[in-house]
């Protein structure tokens, strides 16, 4: 039975993580920390016998010798120091996306995890959704042939809410806490998913970040990112300024086209009848507790088998690099920039 602690008890933790941890028979949460005392009752509803702390630093100082891992669900700006502090205490780390906000914040973390012989994983939960899982299986089975193009659209009508915040005080629209707008919030999901399908890192990135609707916020509400791969391309379009919530994804190869729109997934090929499946829509909810079990399985799999460590971290490192280059490309009026591999990151 592995023992863990939850750092941060906001909407994502309560709506997504805690339901997943309650279902486990191989782990339990023995402590939690949050600076907002009113969040204690939300945590106690799931783990009434666990200990409570008013800060992550206090929890790590008093609990680390009795813990196996931490689950970090705080604002993105706190991720890097908390990950570093947990790894320094020889704890395995599961962290909400984004893992960190810049290549500079990532530097040294992979080496620290390796030196401590510990797993560092990011919550890449969209890969565990029924829709994306089915698409991934079809891509890996070669049903579309060699991939040539991907198109990803995430449409939202506003930023997701944060605990106890008015829309103006939401940490997601405060760049000092979030690291950016929709590019960070939703672009991370698109990047790790598309790159998993492509089986490689993009060689060049171009992007434009815009404010189309929410002019009161100092972050972009719309982002367009173009990724160039050796023999394929991908376009990612993200916005908080749409009239309603929707997701549309296309993956095209030499043999066919895979399309997800809402709850309908279809595979179109010239040599076979069109196949289609009904799948739960990616817009159903924001916290996705039903996807979190697969995230835990991946995390515990890396803990149990050190030979598998680094795969998730390589995905996260790629996201960090691409997001940084996308911001720089936008500052340069959308000009393309090349991607270099990061030293010290397995597979990156």
Can you characterise this structure?
This protein is α/β, with parallel strands linked by helices. It folds into 2 domains: 2-124, NAD(P)-binding Rossmann-like Domain (Rossmann fold), CATH 3.40.50.720; 126-293 and 315-338, 2-Layer Sandwich (Dihydrodipicolinate Reductase, domain 2). The protein contains 12 helices and 15 strands. Strands 14-13-12-11-7-10-9-8-15 form a 9-stranded mixed beta sheet. It has a 6-stranded parallel beta sheet with strand order 3-2-1-4-5-6, with helices on both faces. Helix 1 (11-22) crosses helix 11 (289-304) and helix 10 (187-198) packs across helix 12. It is globular. The model has no long low-confidence stretch (mean pLDDT 94).
Largest sheet, described in full?
9 strands, mixed
C-alpha-based Rg, rounded: 20 Å
The string of secondary-structure elements, in order, is EHEHEHEHEHHEHEHHHEEEEEEEHHE
- On the 0 to 100 scale, the average pLDDT is 94
Q: Can you give the helix content as a percent range?
A: 25-40%
Return residue spans where pLDDT drops below 50 for at least 5 consecutive residues: none
CATH superfamily of the largest domain: Dihydrodipicolinate Reductase, domain 2
How many domain units? 2
Give the class-level CATH name of the largest domain: Alpha Beta
Count the E strands.
15
Distance from first to last alpha carbon: 32 Å
Class by alpha and beta content: alpha/beta
The CATH topology of the largest domain is Dihydrodipicolinate Reductase, domain 2
- Output the strand order for the largest sheet: 14-13-12-11-7-10-9-8-15
Shape: globular
Number of helices: 12
Beta-strand proportion: 15-25%
């Amino acid at each position: 039975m592995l023992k863990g602690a939850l750092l941060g008890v906001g909407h994502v933790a309560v709506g997504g993580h805690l339901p997943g941890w309650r279902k486990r028979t191989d782990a339990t949460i023995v402590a939690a920390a949050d600076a907002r005392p009113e969040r204690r009752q939300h945590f106690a509803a799931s783990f009434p016998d666990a200990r409570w702390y008013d800060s992550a630093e206090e929890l790590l100082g008093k609990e680390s010798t009795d813990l196996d891992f931490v689950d970090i669900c705080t604002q993105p700006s706190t991720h890097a120091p908390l990950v570093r502090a947990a790894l320094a205490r020889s704890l395995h780390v599961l962290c909400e996306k984004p893992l960190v906000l810049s290549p500079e914040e990532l530097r040294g973390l992979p080496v620290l995890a390796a030196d401590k012989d510990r797993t560092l994983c990011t919550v890449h939960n969209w890969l565990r959704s029924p829709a994306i899982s089915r698409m991934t299986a079809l891509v890996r089975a070669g049903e579309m042939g060699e991939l040539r193009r991907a198109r990803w659209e995430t449409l939202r009508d506003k930023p997701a809410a944060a605990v106890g915040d008015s829309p103006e005080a939401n940490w997601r629209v405060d760049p000092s806490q979030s690291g950016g707008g929709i590019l960070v919030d939703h672009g991370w999901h698109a990047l790790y998913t598309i790159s998993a399908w492509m089986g490689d890192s993009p060689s060049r990135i171009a992007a434009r970040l815009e404010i189309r609707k929410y002019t009161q916020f100092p972050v972009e509400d719309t982002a367009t990112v173009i990724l160039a791969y050796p023999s394929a391309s991908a376009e990612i379009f993200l916005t908080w300024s749409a009239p309603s919530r929707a997701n549309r994804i296309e993956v095209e190869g030499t043999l066919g086209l895979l399309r997800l729109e809402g709850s309908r997934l279809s595979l179109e090929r010239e040599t076979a009848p069109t196949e289609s499946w009904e799948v739960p829509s990616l817009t159903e909810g924001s916290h996705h507790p039903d996807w979190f079990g697969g995230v835990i399985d991946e995390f515990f799999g890396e803990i149990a088998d050190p030979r598998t460590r680094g795969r998730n971290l390589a995905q996260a490192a790629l996201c960090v690099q691409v997001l940084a280059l996308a911001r720089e490309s936008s500052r340069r009026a959308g000009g393309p920039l090349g991607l270099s591999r990061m030293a010290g990151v397995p597979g990156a």
